[in-house]
């Protein structure tokens, strides 16, 4: 599932994500076969019956090297969560295709167009019939996109399903997407007093980096000691969008530059 965290401070917007992918396998379909004697005709008949085995979501495995953070046109930052592939392409590759076939545009318009693009790709991969089976209140994937419009730092979270849901946050603060329950519980501590509020206007970029790392690492550590299959973990990638609308890498996996075809 992944945790995407973006923190907006005076000198920039930090966006970070872990690298964990979780694979859920469908449980096997079992059946029983046998023979029985009919009490009416006295003849022996063969039968088969389906067996439902309570194995939950099936066997799962985790892959800790997925690429969840990437720049758009070297000016915006994008972090993805939810399903990691659409058809035969990763979501990372889908966003690269979007970037290479579109002209640069503003943050809000890009968020809307990228949401529609990924939704259409999902519909093509699933087929119209299966896509329409998605409940209206369920979202199978999402992303967070950050940047500046008219000098204002903005984070937009997008959930994609049968209907797309876009939410926008402006001003200084932190926005989380994906596996958010640990971060939300931590923020509930703010109600204990003003001393537990985060002083975002006074934070440096390094403070924002450390805070995003803290939220992701805390979520991963919590899951380690809980009775769950981890959905957050692996290396943390961190990007920075400056007020000049320029994306810079703070930390990334070694293969990221190759995936982005950078010199």
Would you give an account of this structure?
The longest helix is centred in the middle third of the chain and has 20 residues, at 107-126. The chain has a 5-stranded antiparallel sheet with strand order 14-1-2-15-16, covered by helices on one side. It has a 5-stranded antiparallel sheet with strand order 7-8-11-12-13, with helices on one face. Strands 3-6 form a two-stranded antiparallel ribbon. The mean pLDDT is 90. It contains 6 helices and 16 strands. 25% of the residues lie in helices and 37% in strands. The protein has 263 residues and is α+β, with helices and mostly antiparallel strands.
**What's the alpha carbon Rg, rounded to whole Å?**
23 Å
The total beta strand count reads: 16
Per the principal axes of the C-alpha atoms, what is the gross shape? elongated
**Spans of at least 5 consecutive residues with low confidence:** none
Please work out how many helical segments DSSP would assign.
6
Order of helices and strands: EEEEEEEEEEHHHEEEEHHEEH
Oligomer: single chain
**End-to-end gap:** 31 Å
Task: State the share of residues found in helices, binned by percent.
Answer: 25-40%
């Amino acid at each position: 599932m992944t945790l995407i965290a973006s923190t907006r401070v005076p000198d920039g917007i930090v966006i970070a994500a872990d690298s964990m992918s979780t694979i859920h396998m469908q449980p096997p379909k079992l059946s029983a076969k046998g023979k029985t004697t009919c009490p009416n005709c006295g003849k022996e008949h063969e039968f088969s019956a389906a067996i439902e085995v309570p194995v939950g979501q099936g066997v799962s495995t985790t892959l800790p090297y997925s690429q969840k953070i990437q720049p758009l046109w070297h000016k915006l930052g994008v972090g993805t969560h939810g399903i990691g592939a659409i058809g035969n392409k990763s979501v990372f590759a889908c966003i690269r295709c979007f970037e290479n076939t579109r002209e640069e545009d503003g943050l809000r318009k890009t968020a809307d167009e990228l949401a529609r693009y990924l939704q259409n790709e999902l519909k093509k991969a699933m087929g119209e019939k299966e896509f329409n089976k998605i409940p209206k209140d369920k979202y199978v994937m999402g992303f967070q996109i950050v940047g500046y419009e008219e000098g204002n730092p903005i984070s937009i979270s997008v959930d994609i399903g049968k209907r797309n849901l876009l939410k926008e946050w402006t001003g200084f603060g932190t926005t989380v997407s994906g596996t958010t329950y640990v971060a939300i519980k931590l923020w509930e501590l703010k109600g204990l007093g003003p001393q537990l509020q985060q002083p975002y206007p006074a934070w440096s970029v390094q403070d924002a980096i450390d805070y995003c790392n803290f939220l992701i690492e805390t979520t991963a550590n919590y899951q380690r000691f809980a009775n769950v299959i981890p959905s957050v973990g692996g290396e943390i990638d961190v990007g920075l969008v400056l007020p000049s609308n320029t994306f810079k890498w703070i930390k990334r996996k070694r293969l990221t530059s190759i995936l982005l075809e950078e010199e």
